[in-house]
Amino acid sequence: MALNDLVKNALEIGxxxxxxxxxxxxxxxTVEYPNEPVSLYPRFRGRHELRRYENGMERCIGCMLCEAxxxxxxxxxxxxxxxxxxxxxxxxxxxxxxxxxxxxxxxCGDCEEACPTEAIVLGHEFAxxxxxxxxxxLNKQTLLNPGMPNVVIRPD
Amino acid sequence: MSDELVxxxxxxxxxxxxxxxLIVDAAAAVNVEIPIFCSHPKLDPVACCRMCxxxxxxxxxxxxxxxCSVPVREGMVVHTDTxxxxxxxxxxxxxxxxxHPLDCPICDKGGECPLQDQTMRFGPGISQLVEPKRHxxxxxxxxxxxxxxxERCIICWRxxxxxxxxxxxxxxxxxKRGGATLIDIQPGQPVDAKTGGNIIDIxxxxxxxxxxxxxxxxxxxVERTPSIDPHFSTGDNxxxxxxxxxxxxxxxxxxMGVNDQWIADKTRFAWAxxxxxxxxxxxxxxxxxxxxxxxxxxxxxAVTDGLKRVKERQGADAVGGIGSAKxxxxxxxxxxxxxxxxxxxxxxxxxxxxxxxxxxxxxxxLAAVMQPQYGPPPQYDVIMLVGVDPSEEAPILDLHIKRAVxxxxxxxVIAHPRHIELTRYPGSYLGYRPGSEAxxxxxxxxxxxxxxxxxxxxxxxxxxxxxxxxxxNLCGVDPxxxxxxxxxxxxxxxPLILYGPMAAQGATGEQVRNGLTNxxxxxxxxxxxxxxxxxxxxxxxxxxxxxxxxxxxxxxxxDEAARTLLAELWGGELxxxxxxxxxxxxxxxxxxxxxxxxxxxxxxxxxxxxAANLAQLDFLAVQELFLTDTARLADVVLPxxxxxxxxxxxxxxxxxxxxxxxxxxxxxxxxxxxxxxLDHIAAHMGMQWPYASAQGVLEEITTAIPAYAGLDxxxxxxxxxxxxxxxxxxxPAYRRCRQDDLPAAGEGELALVTGTVAYxxxxxxxxxxxxxxxxxxxxxxxxxxxxxxxxxxDNDAVLVRSAHGxxxxxxxxxxxxxxxxxxxxxxxPGAPVGALLNGREQEFVTITPQ
Lengths: 156, 850
Description:
The complex is a heterodimer. By secondary structure, chain A is an alpha+beta fold.
C-alpha cells in the first residue's frame, strides 16, 4: 500500500516537474509594458486619427456623417468652404473644426463605418490617460498628427 | 366652372375634389404619394421630369399620364402602383441619376433632398451605370449669394419658372440639348431679383445653394424655430435654423395671408449681424470721459441717477425716449410706459413716428393683393402707389403686386419722384417733384370728380388750388397724365391706394394724408387707403403708443376711456401735454431736452447735426446691439439682444401680430432683452413692474389695447392674427389739403430725392460678408441731361452741396432719375444724406465735379 502510494506520488511530482521543465526553456508570455510594446489584434480600436492623401491633402471633407453616426454624440464637426487657391481637402468642402470627446467615446467604430472617404479611423493607441479633462478633447491638430501612425484600414 | 365636386378613384380609394384639381393633389388628399420633381404647388405645371407618370384608365386601356399636369375628371380611375408605373419610376430615376454626381456627403441638400428620398422609396435599388458621368461646372456663382452646381441639376425648371412667374425676371435659362443641357445665366448678367434666393428653397436637388449658409449645417442637426422677418414691414414668415449658439440659415415658411412661402433675399441672407463679433456683450459706463465695461447694477444705477438728475433740474419734459420700429411690441410698450408712468412725459417717439402722418390702420390686407397659384384672385384692379417703392421697401409686396399685374390684369398708378422698378408695367406714372404731394393729390381728386361727371361743392372748393398750371409748375407733372391716372382710378372697380412715410412727412404730412383721404372718398374706396411703414414693427410701434400724441391703441392723449384704463393698469397719473416728436427731440437735444433714453435707434448716424446735439446732452443712455455713432456719445450703453435671441411679437403692415420666439442665444454675452432692461431700470427707479417674461408684457398689452384683446402668445399661433381695423378707423370726412408754393430751383440746382433702399450700408446689412458688393454705392444718381449740364460722368467724384451741408459722393447716371432731381438713398456707407437735410419738404443741391 505504502509503496504503491510512494510510486504514485513520485510520478505526480515527476509530471509536475515535467511541466516546469517544459516551460523553463520557453520565452515568457508576460509583456514588460511600458518597456516593451504590446501586440494588438489588427482590428483593435484605439485612439482616433484623421488621415491624409499621399499629396498631403486632408481626406476629411467635413460631411458630418461621423457626427450623425456617433451613438454618444462625442464628435463635433464644423465645415467650411475650401479656398480654391489653397485647398485643405479635395473638392469644395473641408472640416474647419473636428473635435472628438474621448470621455464620451465608446470606441464602437461607427464613425469609421460612416466615413465616405476613410478619413477618420481608429488607431492602435490605447494609452489615453490624462491629467486634465480638457485634454480629452481631440482637436484637428492632434487627430491629424497621431503619435503612432499604424493603422489598418478594415475592408468593410 | 361649377362648384360641384368631381369624384374619382385613385388606387381603389374614392376621392372627391374640386374641379380643376390636378391628379397629384387629389392623390395627396387620400395619402397616396406620387413622386414629383418638377411639379411645385406654387408654380405652373410643366410635366418635364416624367417622374409622376401614373396609369389612367381610358377607352383604349390604361395609359401613362403625368399626374402633375392632368386635371381630374369625373369617374377617372387612376393607378399609382401597377407594375408598369413602378417600372417607369425606376427607369426614370435611373435616367435622372445618370449624370447626377453622388457627392451627397458634401451637398447641403443631403438629408432633405427629394431626389435622395425618392430614390430610396421608388428607385431600383441598384445601379447599372458603369460609364463615367458627364462633368459640368460646379461651384458656379450665379449671383453674390447663390451658388449653382450644374452637375447636380436635374432640369426641373422650378427656378426658371419662379423667376418668370413670380419675379418676372427671367434671368435663368436652359442652354444646349440632350444630355448636355445645362442651366445658366445670360453671360455677365447675374441673378439680381430681390427675392431670387427663393429658388434655393424650391430646388429639388442641391444644384442651387446659398453662399451665405453654405456648408454650415446638415439638415438633421439644426434646431428649427418658426419666426418672422426682422427687416421688412410685411412680416414675412421665416424659419430660423440654429446650431451651437449660432444661426446657420434662414428659409421661408408658408403663410398664405402674408408671404405665400417666399421671402426676400435680405431676410434670407443678411443675418450675420446676429452672430457678429462686433456685438456689445457687456454694459458700458462713461468714466473719465471713456466708455468702460461695467456691471449691470452699475450701469442701471448710472441710468437711474442720470435720468433723475435731469428730471429734478429741468423737469420731466426735459427727458425723452426714442423707441424703434425694428424692435418688438413688448420693448416699445414698456418704453412708452416707462416714459409716461415713471418719468411723467409724453416725449416718446420713434423714427417715422410722430413726424409722419400715418394711418392707424396700416394697409387693408396683404391677402387681398396676393395671387396664389391656387386661390382667389386679388381684390384690387388698380393699385396706386404714392411715394412707395415696394421693390426696395417691401420686396414681398412687390412680388404680390407683380403677380397681380401679370396674372390678374391689375393696373398700377405710380406717383413717385423716381422712376421706380414697378413703372415697367403698363399703367400711369406721375413723377412729381418731392414736397408737392398735396397739390398733386388735389389735382387727382379734382380730375377724378370731373371724369366721374359728379358735382361736389366741398371737393371742388378743397381742390381748386390744383390748377393745370400749378400741377405743371409746382409738381412738374403733365396735367394730361394726371387726368389719365384719374381716369384709371375712377374706372377701377376696387382701387387700392398705398402711401409711404416719404410722401407724408414733415410739416405738410398732415395735408398729404388729408389729400389722400379726400381722393379715396371721391373714389368711394376710403377703406382701401393704406399706409405702408418701412420697418418690421412700424405698425406695432404705433399700436403700442410710442408716439408723442397718442396712447396705446391709437387713443388721443385726452381720451378719457383710455386714460382711465391705463391709470388703472399702471397706477398713478398720466401726463397730458403732447410730447416732442423724434425730430423735435433731436433738434432740441442739449437745449430743452436734457436727457434721452434711446432704444435701438441711431440718430447720430442719420444727421451730423443731431450727433452734435446729442453730444451736448446732460445724460444719454443707449440700448443697442452695436456701438453705433449714437452709442459712442452715450453716458451709459446697455447691451441688448436681437429679435432672434428673445421672445417678442411684431405687428406687420396689415396689422397682423406675429410671434418671433427665441431661436438662439450667446452664453458668453451679458446682453439682455430690451423689455427686461427697461423692467430693471424701472425697478431701480423704485417701481416694481409685474412682468416675468415677454409673454407677460404681451398679456398686459392685450389689456391696454382694446384691438389686441385676447391675442396672447398662445392665441397668435404660428401664423399670427390680424386685429380689426374698424375699431380705430377714423370716420371719413373731407379735410383741408393746402400747400404753399415751393421755391423754384435756382441755376444748376437739383431737387434732392431721398428714400430707403433694401441694400443699404446699415449695420444689419453690411456685416454680411457675401453681400458686401451688393450695398448701394455711396453715390448720387442723376439724369443724363443734368449730369451733362453739371459736367459729370458716371463714377466721377463729386461734391454735393445743399444749404445745410455737403457730401462727397460718386456720381452715377441713370435714365430712371427724373430730370431736375438728384437721388441719394438713406444710410449709404459713410455718407449720411441727413447732412444735406434740414427737415424741409424740399431741398436743393448743387453738384460740382471734384
